[in-house]
Each structure stands twice: as structure tokens, then as C-alpha cells.
Amino acid sequence: MAGVSSESLTKALTELEAKLPFASLQLAKELFGILGTVDSSAGLRRALTDPSRSGEEKPALIRQLFRGKVSAEAVEIAAGLASSRWASARDIGDALETLAATVVIAVAENKSAVSASGITGLEELENDLFSFNQAVASSHEVQRALSEPQASAAAKIALAQRVVPGASEEAKVLIGQAVSQPRGIKATRLVGRFAELAAKRQQRWIATVSVSRPLSETQTSRLHAGLNSLYGRELQINTKVDPSLIGGIRVQVGDEVLDASVLTRLGELHRQLAG
């Protein structure tokens, strides 16, 4: 997805972020249900992405089709997508799939307690998705059953749950979606995409700290406390020594970079002098 579609997806994800602390699996299931309806009708996809239609006409169509059938929140999320511009008819479905998966991933992220095995909800979800793909890859029989066009969606979901019986509820939703509605690709490939989304969200909780020389235990503790306070959550700190920084510190959390290195300041000074 590129160009205008990528911009529309980024906007939708930004708007969704405010809802994620209170997200539920039911909302994700409703969004996946809307996706199923959109995917089942080429005419509907064209209507929702037709640039000649007015900005209000397309979201109104979504509200007309789904109001009373799913939650108002799900309707408005889908209507927001319909109000945006898309480069191709398929892109709106891809975006809806991404939003629904992001809701599931946020539910895993929001689990407050670490499991008995000592891992977070996000880590558990990633492990379950990886385990499913490994199990399918090791069984030609399961691969054939999941790709059988005559098999019902319910049968494929039941088989998938037998493959990873101890999977979390969040993993079951994503795996069930992948095997029942792979949207033209292998179910394991779609599960892999979901795992990539989970891994990307997990990066929001990891701070990669680059320093010019090793930190003392006291410095590390102060850094950890300061970053936790700055971001308002408990971060995992990965520290690496990079002598090229000369001095100072560089911190990356997700896509955000905080750079206070001497090298960066010298570079800024050089640009000012050159300008």
C-alpha cells in the first residue's frame, strides 16, 4: 500500500490510537465482520473508493449498511475509512484488516499482568502466532486441510484451534480470521503479517539506548526511571555502546528518536555554519 492509500491508513491508525486503551475483542470481531461484507461485494468496494462520490456519500453508505448490526464504534471506524481516499478498491479492505488486527493486538498489550511464564500479553500473542505457523509448516496434512476450498470456515477455525490449543484468546481471533478469510494469500502468510504488526507494536515498549561508553549501574537505574517517567509506562531498556557518538546519549523508542549526542550537536553546528 503506497501513496494516498498509505496516507489514509496512517490517518486511520492515528485516530484509532485513542480508542485502543479501551479496546475489546468484540470490536475487532465486528471490524473483521465488516471486512467480510466489503470483500464479498466488488460493487460495494468500488462504491466506497469511487473518487467521484462526495465525501459524505461513502460514509453514509457504511452507516446505512451496518447501523444496528454492529456497535456504533465499529460503524464509525469503518465510516472513517470510507471518507478517506484510496488508490485501489482492495486498499480499503486491507486497511480495515489492519485496523481490526491492531485492535486485537492492543487488547493483548493492555493485559496488566505478566503471565505465569513471565511474559507480557504482546509477547504471548507473538509466540502463539509463531507457534501456529511452525505447526502448520511441519504438517502437510494440516496445510492441505487449510487450503481445501470445499472446507467450511468453521471447520478450518476448529482445526486451527486444535493446532494451538493453548493459544490466547487474542491469538485465536487472529488465527481464526487468517484461516477463514485469508483474502487470496496463504493463511500462514497472513498470520505472519499479524505477527509483524504485533512485533512493531511491541517496539513501542522497548527503548534502545546508544551511549559512547558503558553506563554504571546507578546511571542505568536513573536512565530507566527517567525514561519510564517520560513515556508513562514501564520500558524494556536495551543499551549498546557506540564510540562514534563521542559523548551524550541517543534513545529510540519505536519510531521516536531522542538524540543528545555530541556527534549530533557537532553535525547541527556544521550545518549552521555551512548554511
Structure report:
By secondary structure, the chain is α+β, with helices and mostly antiparallel strands. The protein has two domains: 3-202, no CATH class; 204-274. The chain is built from 13 helices and four strands. It has helices at residues 3-17, 25-39, 42-49, 57-66, 72-82, 89-109, 121-137, 140-147, 153-163, 169-180, 187-202, 217-231, 262-274, and strands at 206-211, 236-241, 249-253, 256-259. A four-stranded mixed β-sheet has the order 2-1-3-4, with no helix packed on it. Helix 2 runs antiparallel to helix 6 and helix 9 crosses helix 10. The longest helix is centred in the middle third of the chain and has 21 residues, at 89-109. The two termini are 37 Å apart.
Describe the structure using short key phrases.
single chain; alpha+beta; 2 domains; 4-stranded mixed sheet; globular
What are the SSEs and their pairings?
Layout: H1 3-17, H2 25-39, H3 42-49, H4 57-66, H5 72-82, H6 89-109, H7 121-137, H8 140-147, H9 153-163, H10 169-180, H11 187-202, E1 206-211, H12 217-231, E2 236-241, E3 249-253, E4 256-259, H13 262-274
Parallel strand pairs: 1-2
Antiparallel strand pairs: 1-3, 3-4
Helix pairs in contact: 1-6, 2-5, 2-6, 3-6, 4-5, 6-7, 6-10, 6-11, 7-10, 7-11, 9-10, 10-11
